[in-house]
Write a structure and sequence with these properties.
DNA-binding, two-stranded antiparallel ribbon, homodimer, globular, about 210 residues, 7-stranded mixed beta sheet, 8 helices, 9 strands
Amino acid sequence: MERKQEVSKAVIQRLPRYYRNICELKAEGVQRISSRALAERMGLTASQIRQDFNCFGGFGQQGYGYNIDKLMEELGAILGLRAGRTAILIGAGNLGRALLNNFDFSASGFKLLCAFDANPELKGKAFGGCSVRSSDDLPSFIAAHQPDVAVLTIPRKNAPDIARELVDQGIRGLWNFTGEDLHLGGLGVPVENVHLSDSLMTLCHLVSATEE
Amino acid sequence: MERKQEVSKAVIQRLPRYYRNICELKAEGVQRISSRALAERMGLTASQIRQDFNCFGGFGQQGYGYNIDKLMEELGAILGLRAGRTAILIGAGNLGRALLNNFDFSASGFKLLCAFDANPELKGKAFGGCSVRSSDDLPSFIAAHQPDVAVLTIPRKNAPDIARELVDQGIRGLWNFTGEDLHLGGLGVPVENVHLSDSLMTLCHLVSATEE
DNA sequence: ACTGAATTGATATTATTTTAACAAAAGTTC
DNA sequence: GAACTTTTGTTAAAATAATATCAATTCAGT
């Protein structure tokens, strides 16, 4: 997948939403769609959609539009959803278990191998079809299975140290729920820092703004 | 709080992160900070920070920097965290309960009044200090207490209808976890659509991108 | 009080992102 | 199969956002 110019971050962040909408359209039985129709559905401009898709080489057809199957295939490939990535989850507390029980990792391109927790009471239990192992086994597990990314649902104060260890052991990406902003881009390890509170604060602001 | 020009969405979305970092600095006992030091800490440019803050009228002091207490106060006010907003949660299934048990609503400016669920078995139970009521009581509760926002943790297929009802009854903002993208801006009701999967797909892409 | 260092707020510049415009290509209809 | 419509991919323009610059102001040290 060669690129003339580095694709901007803004475009990358729109890709999951495109993918989601295309999946929905497929589920609805739609076989093709024009940039205009998709724009209307998603609340964007047709221009933006065409330009976004063209960052990766045009996969539409003039006078016809975009074929849903092809679009889904291409977007999935760009997102790397077909790469068979694997993940482990570190910290099976409330938050970790909530993810295990509720979140469909496979829909985002990951197979969740197993979870780890320091609490011996959790050892051997399973949540959402994922079993919990002792943290002691973590290094050997990583060495043996080489998971791509780690989901961090540990207490915040441990985040920097654990993150560093994981990266040293070969983890190549972090989905970080600890509240601590981690930046390991310098090490070539992408991190997605999740802050639900940011979203709610934004909503708080927007609600206040509607009063003016 | 008057604004010469409408503040851009990009700035608004940075505010929660600023607020978070300022809170951390306060907790660390820091009393003042320069735009340069804050920029270094947050991985931004000093210019951007000064310009962002100046959208709301300068609250720094030349030659001194920004006073942490004042900054926290101002950012909190802009975000509306001091407005005493109230929230209700609709749908006390797995996801709803995970939020009730784990998420600190008050840190984002909301007092969570109670939760609602159609399942009679949940009626009267409490999670994270929040009790569950019957969905039948929802209209009268909203009329009586006039909560500002609703947290949607119901099944996706019900989202559009329920959202519409809530708005009709006076709800002024939605924190939407249903997976369905809701757009009620036309009705003057802001919505934050939360899609955890987007974040994980982005990570998947970034991990793939590091291989090239 | 005076000098020098530090820092903001404002303005100017640059870069990025979004939108618009349109020729070229494909589909559709008669 | 010819005329017309639709729609993309591409290029150009406009709008937006980020960065750099610098005068004005404040602080700190002497």
